[in-house]
């Protein structure tokens, strides 16, 4: 069985203080950290034992995981196991990078977010260079706040073209076309993030080939639907896996809607779905099509079932 697991344990502390984040500068007590470590080690023990499956794992901690030794160790150890296809984590990249030399760099990957104001630009860029030199797969992104725009442009210009820079629409923010154009010039896939995706009843791979797991081993289809499918550690979730439509009205987070079958994102990110690396370089859209609208302002393709090629957003 091919299974993608999104793991989020109790860790909720972070070394950064982003004004847009509820976890900014939160501290976990020693007891909470021990519980997070125990939960993570239980999970990695389970993942290591699933030799009959092919697993892809994305750690999506509330806070920052890589400042904790147990997350670094989990990435290194899981990457070396034959049945693990990919192991990735969302990170602010505040940690050192040398430990990644011990990982299988064909399989380990980082989803890195640059938070201007939280770390000097040169330090963040230096970390990206270290990852490139180590041969680690990574994407880099920013939250699309106007105050981040110049720093994002500077970063895009400094990163090698093969490093994808993504832009997440800021939560609760509505973008004018002019604003969206500015972000789309940096990330041609920004139109996917600009608006929440209508998802009610649409087929979504979560709950079938993708699951979300918390520190207790409770399995849900995704981080956003609270219905429980069983527990990871007693295997009870397996009989609950199957195709099912989304029960929510909209899905507005990349780690959710990337799995919607009505969007072409498994093709766009083929081979790099978890770490958000497109299969082919993405290009800025051309100014206008025959209808006078820039391609990124036309409605995004929405199809049912597996998408025919002609409905796919052109990204290459
Ligand atoms: S780095 Fe991430 S988790 Fe930490 S405060 Fe910023 S947004 Fe929140
Ligand atoms: S579309 Fe989003 S909210 Fe709905 S089931 Fe899929 S991941 Fe969850």
From TrEMBL:
In which residue ranges is the amino acid composition biased (Basic and acidic residues)?
A: 307-316
> Sorted alphabetically, which CDD domains does this protein's record hold?
Radical_SAM
InterPro entries documented for this protein: Radical_SAM_STM4011-like, rSAM_sf
The region called Disordered is annotated at 281-316
Superkingdom of source = Bacteria
Q: Report the protein name in the record.
A: STM4011 family radical SAM protein
Lineage of origin = Bacteria, Bacillati, Actinomycetota, Actinomycetes, Kitasatosporales
